[in-house]
Amino acid sequence: MSRLLSTVGAIAIGSLLAAPAATTAWAQETVTVGAIEILSGPSAAYGTAIKGGLELALDEINAAGGVLGGKKIALIIEDSAGNKDQAVNAARKLVGRDKVPVVIGPTLSNEMFAVGPVTNERKVVTVGTSTTAKGITEIGPFIFRTSLPESDVVPVTLKTAKDKFGVKKIAMMYANDDAFSKSGFDSMKAAAEQLGFEIATIETFGSKDSDFSAQLTKIKGLNVDAITISALVEPISGVVLQARQLGIPASVRFIGGNGANSPKLGEIAGGAADGLLVGSPWFIAKKGETNEKFVADYKKRNGKDPDQFAAQAYDTMYIVAKAIDTAGAADSDKIREALYKTDFNGVMGPFSFTQGRDPASNEGVVVLAMKNGRFEILE
Ligand code: PYR
Question: Which family does this protein fall into (predicted)?
Fold first, then answer.
């Protein structure tokens, strides 16, 4: 399992690795925060973007004096590879060995449903930045998320598809082996029924499948206006590519959820994904100095544009740092109390938590459409 340490200007990485953090003089000058993200495997695009967002914010926070009157934050990022067991092992290490008061992540809802019960039981604040399934924060009182649940975003996307593009008759597809994908589908179905869509068929597939021809051939014969799809980015890309190969015309739009909201979709599927709609709490061209600076700095540092996963992670690092400061100590209980008082205005816009530890508002949600392999905001 790869293990990454990030801090700014405090100490060379080599000496960090050489001695357990808790016994170094350096450790007294730092607060160590953990993160569990997908940095390898098919879903690595999500975790890599999150890592980029976290580290950019971390650098800024530490350069501006850190937390608790001058302590730097050191971030230990563990790679889960999208594997639940690996994510749980990472959590056990971060909590047991590194004694972190806060874990950021894990990346996927599927992973959070495994990790959350462990960190919650150990009373370690855990903040998902990209976990959008129903029931995440219900895992327990130490589980927060800064990501909007699909149930807040998907209805906006489907309503736009109806109002702007006259979508009435749909086929629905989802991966039936992933908690996020199933939950996203449930939200899509509820919204479709509410909007009075005709659901021509519901088709499932496995996240590791590469042949979707049976489902797509059936859908092709149904003359639908659009296909909703709830899955992670790799299988979505495969479905979209195969749909066009099988002759489902570009006029039949795909409508995705959070799993689709990654530039990876355009990288894999290219023009085949054009027209695909997603709801998003953030978009790259969002006006305002904070976002413009974030986009420019992220690009300079990472050599590519940020995406929504990076933006949510960037704000989350600030939210966590502020909570540590408000708490007055690197103490999980106190940080938990402080998070409830969050009143932050970052690249995502104004942010606070509900009593249920979810984002308080979905007002900033916009709908993006894929064009030439890139997401653009719908005017
Ligand atoms: C989730 O796993 O919840 C995502 O939104 C990708």
Answer: Belongs to the leucine-binding protein family.
Q: Distance between CA 304 and CA 295 in Å, rounded?
A: 9
ipTM of the complex: 0.99
Backbone angles phi, psi at 323, to 5 degrees: -65, -35
Ligand 1 center to 233 CA (angstroms): 10
Are 43 and 134 within one domain?
A: yes
Give the domain range for residue 321: 3-148+287-347
Q: Are residues 20 and 134 in the same domain?
A: yes
The whole-angstrom distance between residue 278's C-alpha and the CA centroid of its chain comes to 14
Tell me, yes or no, whether 323 and 371 share the same domain.
no
| Ligand 1 atom closest to residue 257's alpha carbon, by position in its atom list | 5
Residues having CB closer than 6 A to ligand 1 are: 108-109, 130-133, 180, 258-259
- Mutation test residue for ligand 1: of 36, 109, 186, the one with most atoms within 8 Å of CB: 109
87 lies in a domain? Answer: yes
Return d(Cα 227, Cα 200) in angstroms, integer. Answer: 10
pLDDT tens per residue across all 379 residues of the chain: 445 555 443 333 333 333 344 444 444 589 999 999 999 999 999 999 999 999 999 999 999 999 999 999 999 999 999 999 999 999 999 999 999 999 999 999 999 999 999 999 999 999 999 999 999 999 999 999 999 999 999 999 999 999 999 999 999 999 999 999 999 999 999 999 999 999 999 999 999 999 999 999 999 999 999 999 999 999 999 999 999 999 999 999 999 999 999 999 999 999 999 999 999 999 999 999 999 999 999 999 999 999 999 999 999 999 999 999 999 999 999 999 999 999 999 999 999 999 999 999 988 899 999 999 899 999 7
Ligand 1: nearest atom to the Cα of 108: 2
